[in-house]
Every structure is written in structure tokens, then in C-alpha cells.
Amino acid sequence: MDQPALLEMRGITKEFPGVKALDGVDLTVRAGTVHALMGENGAGKSTLMKCLFGIYSKDGGTIRLDGKEVNFKNAKEALENGVAMVHQELNQALTRSVQDNLWLGRYPKVGGIMVSEGIMAKRTKEIFEQLEVTVNPKAIMSTLPVSQRQMVEIAKAVSYDSKIIVFDEPTSSLTEEEVEHLFRIINMLRDKGCGIIYISHKMDEILRISDDVTIMRDGTWVATKPAKDLTMEEIIRLMVGRELTNRFPPKTNKPGEVILDVEHMAGRYTRLKDASFQLRKGEVLGIAGLDGSGRTEVLENLFGAMTREGGHIRLHGKEIQNRSPKESIKNGFALLTEERRATGIFGIRDIKENTVISNLKGYLMGGVCLSDKKMREDTDWAIQAMHIKTPSQKTQIRSLSGGNQQKVIIGRWLLTKPEILLLDEPTRGIDVGAKYEIYQLIIDLANEGKGVIVVSSEMPELLGICDRILVMSGGQVAGEVDAKNTSQEEILTLAAKYV
Amino acid sequence: MSQESKDLAAKAQKFSGKQVGNLLMNNMLIIIMVVAAIGIAIYRPGFVAPSSLINILSLTAAYLPAALGIAGCIVLTGTDLSAGRCVGLTACVSASLLQSVEASNKMWPNIGTLPVWLVIIIAMLIGACVGAFNGFFVGKFKLHPFIVTLGTQLILYTLLLLYVQMGNNGGGTIGSLDASYTDFVRAPLFSIPAANGASIPIPRYVLYSIILAAIMWFIWNKTTFGKNMFALGSNEEAARVSGVNVLLTTIMVFALAGAMYGWTGFIEGARVAANNANTGLNYELDAIAACVIGGVSFVGGIGKISGIIIGVIMLRLIFVGLTFTGVDQNYQYLIKGAIILFACALDMRKYLVKK
């Protein structure tokens, strides 16, 4: 480690209500090196970068750039001080041209107010030639494939003459050839003396391109080692190495006969390419995979919330269509959506309304009027059966904790008497105690003979409560493993199969 | 030809077929309107007589500036409902400041006749202030422009009602304008000889509208402000992290729109020449309709000056055409409404994200 430290982050701490997202994390990036930042989903990589860019304000710790302490208030300030980032989600003005995007916020001016298209074109050409990017600078952004938009974003970050450039999953939408191109650019920047922070899930890339590797887990720093001393196995062990004791209720459910058979399901507009699997009565089937691997798409295509391109769904051997959520509910399906706040709860409505909303037909009297008594009884049932902690039925659901909100929604679905429950990230944003209760609920449902499919980005959770786990990769099923005889390492390897 | 290249050729054919379909679909409204105009011209040849065409041209010129202004608000995914009342207020102010000294009930008897250029500045300044007010509420408090400008529309109406009560006017119509004013706006630019030996004048405000359109084109396409406006409409977050001053840009877009309504008010004051509290009523609806027809999208970040001009022309063409065919006046709102719905549906079709 002979190069000088360019960026030093020391003891960075960040707390969100109820969660310690970062706990004393250190990161030192030396000039002229590529520093890989690794960790599972939710390990705190993005939060750390957001603290660097001032998108979040850190609660503790210091950041030094070139030995000088800095505290950026926003992305603009970071850019002006030579810290740039290529975001995973592209943040671009899609209706505008490539070069308009490239120089947005710092257009070359003539006469005070006019934009000099000439200078802009010249500088664009220079930077594209330097980076060997072959994108038409006049093309409208939305007409370009995602990989080219990604290259424009990379060129933009480089064009700020940054000392530190963060690449957040830059290769997720690139072809192999384009990845080679990106690596040439990164090597060039390294030779120029820049410090590169490289965030990726792809082990082989990390081992190839990086000089140092920092591994994070659960918001804490785990290790920083030279890449040449690391192996793929070693990295995975450091990433996942946590103990699993008593975090999950005993698995008492017994899978029975096959009730659901899905063959070659694919999405018409979504990135689900091919999924085939079976679900048994009383079984908990997990779906694992990286972000963007098509996990959520499996559930939403099955539920009819997305349009399917082909494939067959058989329930008890009988072909069903599930063209819309309404039809799926009739067929005995229920879907707990991934984004609870956006697509799960009706925040300003009370517990009762949130509980009965999917089952209103059940409360009709004479076909017109809803029976308030029945609705109150069912809501009481849900509050007791799900152990929902709420002052009353009249409480606005948004004032409950995440765990209790989730229990209300599970109660809502149980009132529709579903046979198959699709749960998308059922424990996201829920504290540890409440997670256990949700796990118990899932096991109980399976014990009652329901089929449960659980999508989760937390692997220990899938290993703890599922019978089998389906691993998605690049929109396809990469493999199916028995939860009792597998390891996180095996799942991670499968998840990287088609990326 | 190998099988592979045949496949490729077939693919290209299919692709271009789809492209042609899309092109047709995306310009469907204009195609329908042109066909309708041609139909009317065949049915009633008077529709395309020079006098009628110049009438359409003049009306287009009168309605264009407001549309140019409101288009900026739409580019920001907003709208501006205060445009019509703003036109009304500035029309009454302009007319009251430029009544001839002989007018029997001159509103402000003591000011004599102000220079025309001063009144133009006053009218545009009033408009710009109203716009900046709108823009401030939109940008600072993140209110939807629909709400903000609905509020301003009502506030302006009271100001307008109070204004026409002031001085010697007593709520009446503001007319008897000074010749310097009416000449500046309406005097013939040049005349075109018509069939029966008469000549049809083209009013001066047509020229002004052409100049304004050119200035707006320059602002939209050549200035930092214009580019920032489009970037902001396309992706506010991207604009913000790239260092664009979002609040200032929003205020400026609305203020520029307001200045355009001020100009429209100044022209309308002399063009209609009978100004009261109803002047300018519902102008924003015509302006918004013209923008939508011309491809300024409510999705944001999309729009062209040429499109807006075409939109205004098309709308006027249809209205004048309807008059020619003798369609009941009551139906024109139905047709206006249908055009707006159809245009927006076609527009959204382009941007729908299918799941």
C-alpha cells in the first residue's frame, strides 16, 4: 500500500428511526487504485455512498478528501470538489439529447445567456474520443439502449475531471464487450491517478479489476484486504458470515401434493424470461436472486398484475389464466406487494378499511349495503389472529409500525380465503422481533395447508423458513435448491449464473 | 440471398411498417384536421378565399403568444389556468391607459395619452409578476400548478372586476381607444387584392407574433434557460443533481408565460377594442388545446415552437371551418373537448409504460 490515501472515511455512522444503517464504517481509497466495495443487499454500501455525496447527512465520523475534511451538502457540491458517481438507476433527462445531458448544469455559454452548441459538440467529441465511446451526441436519450445510456453516464462522471469516481453496479446492463470497454476506461482513470470505488456483486469482475476490497455486513465494516489475497469463496464467507440461532420458529409444516404448476412463464413487457416451478400444499417456497433478477416479476406475472407473454399455470391440474388481479383473487391467490407504503397500505384510512378492502363482497346485505357489524367482527378477528398491536380499529394504518402494517395486510388477504399466498419481501423494513412473528405466521399458514411463495433479498430468512428455494438470475430460473441442504454460497453462485 | 439476410430484410420491412404506423398514429390528429379542412374547403369554397385565409392567419397571430407562454408551463409538466384572466386584466389596463383624450367617459382623464411602448412594458410587467407569483408557489411549496393557477385565476378576476370599476369607468366597457394604439396593433402591414377589386389588409400584429415566435424559439433552443427548462421538465431530479437552480428556472418559466399573456392582453385591448371583465375568458383553454395538438406533452420535457404554431393554426382552421359549414355554435365546445381528449390520449399512448 504505497500510494497516498485520496479519500478517507472514518467511523461513519448513520441511524434511521429504529435501525442503525451504518455503524462506524471505515473506507480508505488510495490514489491510482480501484477499491471494490462489497456486501449483500442491505449491507449499507449505498447508504455509505449517499453519506459521501451528502444525499444523507451522516450522524458521526469524518470524511477527508486529499487530507482535507469535507462535508458535502448535495451532489452538486461533491461534483465540484471532484467526487462523481455513476448511479445504478440512471438519472437522466430522457427527452433530451446526449450532449444536453452530458453538460446539463454547466453548459458552455456565449454572451452570458446563449449556449454554445459548437463548444459543447467539441468537448463532447473530445471526451467521447478519449473514452472511445461511439454514441451519437445528438441522439435523444430515450432512443438509446440502456447500455449506451450507461456509457453516457460514465462519460459524464469522467468529464467532471473527478478525483474520485464511484461506480455503482455499472455492468448490470452491459454486454461482455461493453464490460471490457468499461474496464479499459477504469484502467485509464487509474493510470491517471484517480481513486475508483467499484460496487458490484460480480465476484470475477471484482477480483479482476480491483486493487483493494472492502467488505461490509449489516452496516458494519468487516474487512479490507488486497484483492490478490482474496478468493471468491473467501469473499462470500466474509459477506454472509453471520450466525443463525433462534431467529426462526421451528419448521413444523409438511409439504403435501402439488397444487400449483407453472410452466415457462414469461413477461411480455417485463424482464421475466422463463420460469417453471411447482408449489405443494403446505409448502413454503422461497425465491432468491439479486436485485433485478426477476423475483418480483415471477409473483406479479403469476398474479396477473403484469402481462404474461406465454406459459401455462395449472391449479390442481386445471389450466387457469390469472389475467388480472381480480381474476387471480377469485382463483384463490393473494399477493403481498413489495413496496408496502406505495402499493400495500391505504395510509390515511383506518385499520378496518384496510383489513376488509379485498373482501367487500363478503359483507354485502341485499346486494347494496355493507354490513358494518360483519366488517368489525372480521377486523377483530384479524387483530387477534395476527397479533396486531393497535389502539383501535379506527386508527390510521400509517401510524402503526411496519410490522403491524404488514400483519394487517396479511389479515386482509386471509379474509379472501386464499389457497396460495405470494409474499414479496414480507419482512422488509421491519424490526427483528416483528420479523419472527411474520415468520411464525408464514409457517402457521403452511400448516393450515396453504401454499406460500416468499420472495426475499435476505438469504438467511429464506434458508430459515422455506422448504425449497428457487434461485432467479437474469430473468430465468437458475436452479432450485433444498433449503435444508444448501448454503448461501451455493445460492449466491446460482444467482450469478446469468448476470 | 441467404436465409439470414432474408430474415434481416423481412425484419427491416416489418420494422419500417411499424414505424410508418407509429408516425401515422402520432400525427393522427393533424391528419384528421387537415382532411376535415380540405373537406370543408370543397363543400364551402369560400373557406379558402383570400379573405377567409387572412382571417384565419390573423386569428392565429392573436392567439399564438398566449400558447407560446403556456407551452413552457406544460413542458414543466404543469399548466396555467390563470392565463385568460391575466389577458383580461392586462387588456383592460392597456386600453384604459390608451383611451383617446376625446373619449366621453375616459377612465383616467388626467393622464393624457401615454406612449405605446410604456403601456406595452406595463402590460408585460403585470403579466410577468403574476407568472412569477405562480412560479414561486409551484417551485417553493411544490404545489401542483393546477391548484396554484386556479387560485391566481380567481384572485385576478377580483382584481379585474375592481379595476373596471375604477376612475370614470364605472364597470363599463373600455373603448374609444387612441389612434396611436389601434394603429400600432391593427394598421395594415400590407394589403392583398381580392376578387372584386377590394383589398384585404393584413394587420400588424401578425408581424409581431412572427417576431415573438422567433424570440421564443431562440429562448427555447439556444439559451441555458431553455435547456434547463426542458431538462427540468424531463427529469427534475437529474436537473437538480446536475446543479440546475430548479426554483429560479420554474419562476422564470411562469414569468415568461405571464409576460406573453401581458402581450396578448395588450394586443387584445386594441384588436377587440371593447374591453370589459369578460375579456380573455377561457383563453387558457384554447392555448392549452393548441399546445396539446401541437405535440407539447403533459409528460414533460417535450415540445417544439413549430408544433405550437401548427397547433394554433389547426385549432383556428377548425373553428372558422365550423362557422363556414353552418354547424350550430353550441357544438363548438363539444368539438373542442373531443379534440383535447383525443390529442391527450394519442399523446399518452406514446409514453405508456406497459407492465
Question: Can you put this structure into words, describing what you see?
Answer:
The complex is a heterodimer of chains A (499) and B (355). Chain A has 2 domains: 5-240, Rossmann fold (3-Layer(aba) Sandwich), CATH 3.40.50; 258-495, 3-Layer(aba) Sandwich (Rossmann fold). Helix content of chain A is 33%, strand content 26%. Chain A contains 17 helices and 24 strands. In chain A, helix 13 packs across helix 14 (402-414). Chain A is globular. A two-stranded antiparallel ribbon of chain B has the order 1-2. Chain B is globular. The two termini of chain B are 39 Å apart. The mean pLDDT of chain B is 88. Chains A and B meet through helix 2 and strand 8 of A and helix 9 and helix 10 of B.
Q: Helices, strands, pairings?
A:
The complex is a heterodimer of chains A (499) and B (355).
Chain A: E1 5-16, E2 19-30, E3 33-38, H1 45-52, E4 60-65, E5 68-69, H2 75-80, E6 83-86, H3 98-102, E7 109-110, E8 114-115, H4 117-131, H5 146-159, E9 164-168, H6 176-191, E10 195-199, H7 203-209, E11 212-217, E12 220-226, H8 232-240, E13 258-267, E14 275-280, E15 284-288, H9 295-302, E16 308-315, E17 318-320, H10 325-330, E18 333-336, H11 340-344, H12 351-356, E19 364-365, E20 369-370, H13 372-385, H14 402-414, E21 420-424, H15 432-447, E22 451-455, H16 459-465, E23 468-473, E24 476-482, H17 488-495
Helix pairs in contact in A: 13-14
Chain B: H1 3-26, H2 28-43, H3 50-75, H4 83-97, H5 116-141, H6 145-165, H7 179-186, E1 188-193, E2 199-203, H8 204-222, H9 224-234, H10 236-241, H11 246-272, H12 283-293, H13 305-325, H14 331-351
Antiparallel strand pairs in B: 1-2
Task: Predict the CATH topology of chain B.
Answer: ABC transporter involved in vitamin B12 uptake, BtuC
Distinct helical segment count of chain A: 17
Please give the CATH architecture of chain B.
Orthogonal Bundle
Class of the largest domain in chain A in CATH? Alpha Beta
Shape designation of chain B = globular
Mean pLDDT of chain B: 88
Remind me, CATH topology of the largest domain in chain A?
A: Rossmann fold
> Pair with the most extensive interface?
A-B, 29 and 27 residues
Write down the Rg of chain B.
Answer: 23 Å
Classify the beta-strand content of chain B into a percent band. under 5%
**How big a fraction of the residues of chain A is strand?**
25-35%
Q: Uncertain runs of chain B with pLDDT below 50, 5 residues or more?
A: none
CATH top level of chain B is Mainly Alpha
Please state the CA-atom Rg of chain A, rounded to the nearest Å. Answer: 25 Å
Taken together, the total number of domains of chain B comes to 1
